[in-house]
Amino acid sequence: MNDHPDLVALLRGELSNADVIEVADHLDACEECRQELADTAVGHALLTGTTRTLGGTRTPGASTPVELPEVPPLELPDRPSGGRGWLRPLGLVAAAAALVVGTVAVTNQLDRSDAPPTTVAAPEQSADLEPVEGKGSGRVVMAEDPNRAVRMTVETRDLPKTRGGQFYYVWLFNPATQKMLPLGVIGPGGTASFEVPDSLVGRYQVVDVSLEDDDGDPGHSVTSVLRATYA
Amino acid sequence: MVHLDAADARAIGLRFARQEESALEEAYAAYAPTVLSYVSRYVGRDEAEDVVQRTFLDAWRNAGRYDPGQRFTGWLFTIAHRRAIDTLRARRHQVVDVESLRELSGEDGRDMVNRFADAADVRSAVAQLPEHERVVVEMTYFEDLSQREIAERLDVPVGTVKARASRGTRRLGEIIRAAEQTTNEKGEPR
Questions:
Q1: Pairing with A28, which of A49, A153, A228, B42 sits 20 to 30 Å away (CA)?
Q2: Which member of B1, B82, B146 has the closest CB to residue A14?
Q3: B2 with B73, same domain?
Q4: Kind of pairing, strands A137-145 and A125-131?
Q5: B97 touches chain A (CB under 8 A)
Q6: pLDDT tens across A152-175, in order?
Q7: Which among A54, A72, A178 is the nearest to B37, CB-wise?
């Protein structure tokens, strides 16, 4: 081994014992190769860790061929008027972005002491919010709005006070598809009102109140505290 | 040392946060296979594709809440983690593997999210290597082939394989290092 040694082969254990010793002797005398070994070891460690994670093996050094699965094309829901469950493949993302804005553009009026509570005229439907675990209760009242929308008023009672960095959040939930629609923040004992397009209300059956951490994660925390079935 | 621009490594997250349409497509292409590998581990292959779809739709719907100072893959795999838990909880009348639930929740679950986020970052970095280096690195580490086997498959001298493996491995470290430095410069903890 007169040239600079094969450091990838060294790190991967592909060399014979004699070659490993020869590389060691070479490294003693070659600053350039020592630096290269340090750089190569970084990449080797990253790749070996990845192989272990994706290959599912827990034994260091026991590499398993990694073949990532094929994924189907991403499908985005189209406009609500297109009918429930109508999906289309990724590509027309601009239209989908507009849809996303449309579907989550619910108005949220948090109850404040200086603002009068929302007046709900002619309620058509109501349901009690029951605690999933622990204490708390509440009520959901849904009233039709002239603009093909449903005014959904959610009232919570006796929920535990949140710690710093936590808050309660209202969702619509479809148990069959597991889809969730975020509505907005609500207090532990307060009222919040959301105006939701009626085409969306029919796609969900459950109102869910969750306890969330302010961690930047947009998804449901999986800590549901209250639920009501309205359909 | 090989110096690379970190723009490619961080671009998807930044553009995703700005809700640029092409970012969703690129994020899906870059990370969906690893997300699928992750969720399959818990919910099984049959339901995993659906969980992957819901993960990306959730992420896109809430792209405005993503902080570009945060590692994008960490955020994405946290969403995947929660959607996987939703799926297991919905199986009221089915047997759920206790080991899967244990691994998915608590410290082990967080550790696994970070490990898969790391793996996704490395896979993405490998994809940025020059083609001739990428092929050799993938064959070496992901197909577990020896240098002689790779030389035979590619019909090139073993010395060429050694050189490409060496350069590719070192370059990969530089790509990840550049991406890490970019994240740290934004002052956000991982």
A1: A49
A2: B146
A3: yes
A4: antiparallel
A5: no
A6: 889 998 898 888 888 999 988 877
A7: A54
